[in-house]
Amino acid sequence: GIKKFIVGLVIKHSTNSATSESEKTYCAKLDMILVQIVKHEWPHNWPTFISEIVGASKTSESLCQNNMIVLKLLRLAMSPFVDLISSLGFHIFLFLCVVKKYLTSLVDK
After folding, report:
1. Phi, psi of 43 (to 5 degrees)
2. At what angle do helices 61-77 and 49-57 cross, to 10 degrees?
């Protein structure tokens, strides 16, 4: 459905780090749409969202950076929901650990 379509567009347009300003604006709009979808779907209808975004972040540095933006937007959008924030905060911590490991492996190459 629409969720898969938007996720595909986000991945496609954020994996290339050498993008124009108009492409960056388009990607930012896609990120905001994705956040709206996640707000309605996570955690009940999309329980794998966190693991999917972590897994996708391992594929490229620019996608990893974009996923950090998505998580930041999500945190800001969900700030009224204290219970979800503590859960999301824990998952963001895990995500940052994975990112650190990924970036360290790139440096070691």
Report:
1. -95, -15
2. 150
Q: Look up residue 77 and give its two tokens.
A: 């959008």
**pLDDT 10s digits, 34-70:** 999 999 998 899 999 988 998 898 888 889 999 999 9
CA distance 37 to 7: 10
Phi, psi of 81 (to 5 degrees): -100, 85
The pair phi, psi for residue 98, each rounded to 5°, is -65, -40
Residue 10: CB partners within 8 Å, gap ≥ 6? Answer: 27, 30, 31, 34, 66, 70
Q: What is the pTM of this model?
A: 0.72
For residue 31, which amino acid is it?
Answer: D
What are the tens digits of pLDDT across the range 22-39? 888 999 999 999 999 999
H-assigned helices in 1-109: 2-14, 21-41, 49-57, 61-77, 82-108
